[in-house]
Amino acid sequence: MLLTGRTAVISGAASKRGIGRATAELFAEHGARVAVLDLDAEAAQEAAAALPKVGHGEHIGVRCDVADRASCEAASVATIGAFGAINILINNAGITQPVKTLDITGKDWERIVSVNMTGVLHLSQAFIPNMRDNGGGSIACMSSVSAQRGGGIFGGPHYSAAKAGVLGLAKAMAREFGPVGIRVNSVTPGLIQTDITGDKLTPEMRVDILKGIPLNRLGEARDVANIYLFLASDLSAYVTGAVLDVNGGMLIH
Ligand SMILES: NC(=O)c1ccc[n+]([C@@H]2O[C@H](COP(=O)([O-])OP(=O)(O)OC[C@H]3O[C@@H](n4cnc5c(N)ncnc54)[C@H](O)[C@@H]3O)[C@@H](O)[C@H]2O)c1
Question: Which of 6, 116, 161, 225 could cross-link to 23 by cystine, CB 3.0-4.6 Å?
Answer without folding.
Answer: 225
